[in-house]
Structure formats: structure tokens, C-alpha cells
Amino acid sequence: MDNPNIIDEENWGQRPKQFSNEDKSSYPSDRDQQQRISSWDAILQSAKGNKEEMKQVRDTLNRAYKSSPDSLDQKELRMIGRDKKPEPVKIDMSGLDRYLKVREEAKQIVNTPTLVPKPRREFGGGLNRDFTNQKLIEGEVLYGPKKD
Asked: I need a surface site. Which of 8, 11, 55, 120 has the fewest CB within 10 A?
């Protein structure tokens, strides 16, 4: 029986061994290990919709968990309800109230319209009094005092 497509009776329905560098029988290239891997994957796929087969798979996984819990992967642990659920993340909310208060105040300041007064004009038009006085002074400096 050297046909790799035919699974031996002793390997049918067996979980694959956990890989170890020291144990050559746990290598994926080992014939028995290859048969266990392919048969186990097929069993898991066929048991998904069938309650009886799923019960047998769970029994097999529970026996494997009792003998060596580290040999099961996360998917198998989830099937028997022994997976570790991640702890919820705790968020420090101590400074959040102050931040929200400052943000609300800033929003009010930004949204509050500020009235900018229009510049007042002292007179309706023409030359400004300061401008004319300055030009008179410049003229006196350049041309001398005005003689009447």
C-alpha cells in the first residue's frame, strides 16, 4: 500500500502530531503525518453541517486537549469552547471631559459673530486737514515763507 492517495486505517480520523524538530514522525513529509493531515482536514470540512460528526470531532479534540492543550490550534480550541477571548481594551477617559469642554468653548468663540466697527469719516470728502497742513509746511521749507 504505497499509494499516497489511500489513507491507512490507523491514520484515518487521527489528529496530526504537533510538529517538533526532534521527532521525524511529526514532519509534514512523513507518510503517516501526510495522511493524518489530509484526513483531519477532510473530517473537519465534512463535520461542519452534521451534528453527529461534529460531536465526534469535539470528543476527539477534548481528549487531545486533556493530554496536551498546547497541541491544539486556535480554530480547534474555538470548536470546543476553550479559546482565550481577548480582554477588552480599557481606555483612560480622565482628560476627555476637559478636552470636550475646551473644544465646545472654542466652537462657541469661533461661531460668535464679532462686530467690526466701520471707520468713521470726519468729513465727507476732499483733502484731509492734516494732509493740507503737512503740504503747507513742506512748501514753506522748500520755497520759503509765503509773503503777503
From this structure: 120
